[in-house]
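User: Assemble these into one structure.

Assistant: Restating your components, then the assembled model:
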Amino acid sequence: MTADDATLDVTETQGRLLIRAAGNWIFEAPLPDTAPVLGRITEADVTGVVLDAEAVGRWDSAFLLFVIKVDEACRVAEIEFDTSRVPEGPRHLLAMSKAVPRHEAAQPRRSSWLADATAVVRLTREQFAQLANFLGDLGPAFVRMGLGRARVPWRDFVGIFRQTTFDALAIVLLINFLIGLILAFVGVQQLAAFAAELYVADFVALATTREMAAVMTAIVMAGRTGAAFAAQLGTMMVNEEIDALRTLGIDPIEYLVVPRVLALVVAMPLLYIYGSTAGLVGGALVGIPQGDLSVLAYFQETKIALAPKHVLVGLAKSACFGAIVAGSGCMRGLLAGRGAAEVGNATTAAVVEAIIWIVAFDAYCAVVTQAFGI
Amino acid sequence: MDATAPPKIDVRDVTIAYGDFVVQSGVSFSVKARDVFIVMGDSGCGKSSLLRHLIGLRRPRNGDVFYDGQSFWQGSSDEDRAVFGRRFGILYQSGGLWSSMTLAENIALPLRAYTKLSERQIAELCSLKLSLVGLAGFESFYPAQISGGMRKRAGLARAIALDPDILFLDEPSAGLDPLSAQRLDQLILELRRSLDTTFVVVTHELASIFAIADDSVFLDSETRTVAARGKPHELIETAESAKVRRFLRRGEGDEDGGS
């Protein structure tokens, strides 16, 4: 303790408390315990409080906090608080802190475990309702476009198409090439047990064209383009750009969503063909040396395995995946809230939903094509 | 000015540039302790950029800034600047509140980082700071749940969390209704009077400028340097630059002051 440290003492004369504060009331210095003094105020025999702070040296929020607590205690005890001997600074700040009454309206709710569990159910239901709404808006927009009555910005379409195709070529190539490699590695090892290494060509061709090229390309595009769509539209939502379109009588679905969905529905089958080729090349590069096959035999076998129906199934699925990726990206973007954090949430939701729907739809296709023997 | 004590802030020959584009050059002025100092100018003149140089977010191309006579840029390391920075309170243009934290958590973060206060003291201080800006009872609200004017005030509450020596306010009243803006001006004057804080306010709200300014500097976006220095209500008559006089009159009245 030094002489300048904050001190506090209380004297009482006929029910009136005189609180004397002195020294430096700053957080860096030791502070006296204020609880006994505050407790004393609320005792029944006290009729008034005077705070004498004329001997207070340096002060910061620590002193202000004490003054406000004394004031609060006096308010609770319904007795008078005389601040005439408090320096001007803290006195003004005390008045300022009371200038606006405390906000007592409903506080934001805290979530409980049970509430979280019911929220999941509600959210799932909400999501399906949102999806139904979105599709209910998108369908008619496409019909209007078909009838030539929609305002679709074709210049944007070209830009989006370029962004989703040319700019994605490198990553689609890399992923599909590597998947082809992996397929061939796994295939050769298993088929060698039956001395049937030649059939690795069939395996790679079928797996690539029917499943992997379509699914992997779609997943890459969900992370790349679906996320970009959600971020673009979400930011437009936050900036009130979507509202600006609506008030001008321009349907944001027609103007923003239709070109994006259309661009991906066209782009994905093209990327699929490109990706399949990369996958087949990757498979051949591993399958031929690992299976100890001749190049001619491998290509002959691939040609036999590659029936047109497999490629057609892949193409059709790709187009649908394109719609899923673009649709979930746009939908999450348009449903984004108003804060900056909302754009991030929308992007995450868009990618997660797109991947779930891609896999689910692919599984559905596998069952249906099996049942129809395609 | 007191010849013995150095000015609170001394800006000497600062050049603000982005790449080849020089926004302002040769900016010099000084700010006295306990003044409300206004940085004004037309749009794009570099007001906010200047502020970024003052608070250490961007190194000036040339020149230096001195706080209480100590060099902030040339003679200081990054660590020194961080120590300096603890004496600053900054209100960013759009509040700058962390959106993932409640208002109380926003104010508590600097307190937790730089003081050894107990959690209870921190909670009490958060409530105190919020009550000073008229937001008592909003402790557990997120920034997205309150209005733009309230976000500005909450930003100010965070800026004064550490009882700063110097408060920098970037366009504090932009986007506020006249009554809220006036309340914010009152708050600034009250804080200055009660806490002895020095204020540097970047603004072009004339009502606000005349209400709170002790001293000011005017940055011109065409000549790209300081066009005028002094008290705004004197500059309105005496400024050499016609542009400054027109600016302060909101373009109204004759050049000769016939309004």
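DSSP finds nine helices and ten strands in chain B.
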